[in-house]
Amino acid sequence: MLGNFQHSNLRIEVEAEESAIGESLLYPRKLQQWLWPQSLDYNLPEQFHSGLQFTTWLGPIAIQHQVDVAESNHLRLILSQGIDGFHEWYWGNGWVQSRLEGISLLPLNLAQTFSLLRLREFLTNNQTKP
After folding, report:
1. What pLDDT score was predicted for residue 130?
2. Per-residue three-class SS string for 63-114
């Protein structure tokens, strides 16, 4: 694969419970709501599970994903095509952490930062108020 090896590890605070963050990452229907400008394959199951393979698109660039780990507070995706590497997520009450490593021509740190900010905005705007 052509590109540069890139790695980034970012952690942000979010005003959300662990379960809400998990739903936003593990449920494709919710993930698609904030992942813009990436789009997901259609016909994905309700929830990610180990071994699942799917494609996201960033404009004309396809990124293949294989779910390596899908747990209540941890998601690890093996990436190929547009990015050769992995994307790993951890979360808990009030925080989410994203670790991304791979070879790509895409600016991975910029995309990762943008994704985390979109996730935080999504969680803030969809928070159930008492």
Report:
1. 41
2. EEEEEEEEECCEEEEEEEECCEEEEEEEEECCEEEEEEEEEECCCHHHHHHH
